[in-house]
Amino acid sequence: MSKTKKEGFMQGILALMCSQVIIKILGLVYSMYLTNREGFGDNGNAIYMGGYQVYALLLTLSSIGVPNAISKLISEKLALGDRKGADRIFKIAFVAFAFIGFVGTLMLYLGAGLIANYWLQIPEAEYTLMTLSPAIFFVSISSVIRGYFNGRQKMSATAKSQTVEQIFKTSLTIIIVEIVAIFTHVNTELMAAGANLATTFATFLSFSYIYALYKMNRREEFVSLKKEMGTNSKESARSIIRKILAVSIPISVSSLISAINKNIDSITVVRILKPLIGEATAKAKYGILSSKVDILTSMPLAFNIAFATALVPAISGAKVKNDTQTINKRLRFSILITILIGLPCTFGMFLYARQILELLFPNASSGGTLLAISAFTIIFTVLAQTINGALQGLGKIRVPAIALGCGVIVKLIANLLLIPMEGIYENGAAIGSVLCHIVSFSIVYNVLKRTIELDFRISKMIVKPLLITIIMCIISYATYQACLSLAIVSKIATIIGIIIAVLVYAILIILGKVLTKEDIEMLPKGDRIYHFLQKIKIY
Asked: Where are the domains of the chain?
């Protein structure tokens, strides 16, 4: 593998990772604002997220699998030198998914009342669904353009557009909700609708931005495309659409099942708990689960989703050339980094669940047990996410959907059995989510092992990271308790404990030599980093 290819792969990952971290931080910012905002809180989150989960479900049907599908098909064409064929795939996909997105928008707008009253059993969510409906169209066509850039391994374009979207979403959410609160005298229902209206505006602005990037890129490629002889036969539009759907539908089904997974909670939690603890309390419990807990447990995915996204075109291109060495190197490295991200996040969030909620949501800090249980979804979710990207690149595009489908069935059964149990209640939904992701991960990992020979050493990939994580937790929590004994305020003690955890973990990873020379050199500026570690006699 050439140095240029290594840097290109990692730079794409780094761009996506930075983008996703910014997106998650900004998402946390507006979630903190909404949850702590007088008149919104956990009940407002139930209305807001109830509508949003249905929107996410329809969005999955219209666009979610599109970037990876188009990315895979374009990267394969480019690997064979067929740039005109790659360009034709993009154009036909754009028209097709513009139509699909428009249909999705109409479905959500016209069915808003029915969905809010009978599906969610949260009538106040009707306006949130209506205000979200145009976003489906804009995200659908944006997804095609993102696939175009990803297929050319220009991940920075996707990263920039997603960052732009989240910046506008965060700022507009705060502005619009404040305006609605002033003019409606703090009407929670209309404030939730205003928050989702901000999402629609943000998706439009994000589309405008990435379309401008596409036009600039087109001008640069136009001359070379015009000169290209194009020896390949001109493929029909029907054939191209069939190929796109053959790839995007299985990927979309996986995302659809993921959306259904979240909607299981929106359908079961309020419905089951309402006769047991009252409607208002049941909605508040769902609000905690769907907003605070979901946002916090999905934070680590921001670091990891870059690997899953970048692996699809990288492995697809390598597979076309039968370059098994590149496939193995990138896969092994990506899974190792995923483990190093997932383990500390899982154990750290379990350890500090109550303290994190008190720190971030001082006006609505309940849900510590829910967050502690849900923390164990993190490690299985991030591992499955990376493996899914690898399987899609290897052509096993149906496996992630089947695996998650099995997990969702387990979750539904767990919800129905556990939520009605006194003393468990909403925690049953969190337990169901953990079981769901354990099942899903187990299936995709076993399929990957059978598909490709994995060069994994248990001591390096699992034992060392697990031991380092346990030591990190012990030192961090001992520091937190010491701070409390010195009469340091709990919130400050929590921040100190988390900072110590990060520092200890980083030091132990380096001293434990979890990353080999080859792993370090895969990183941007890896040669310099390794030279520095050699200089201070660590390697």
From this structure: 3-226+236-456, 457-539
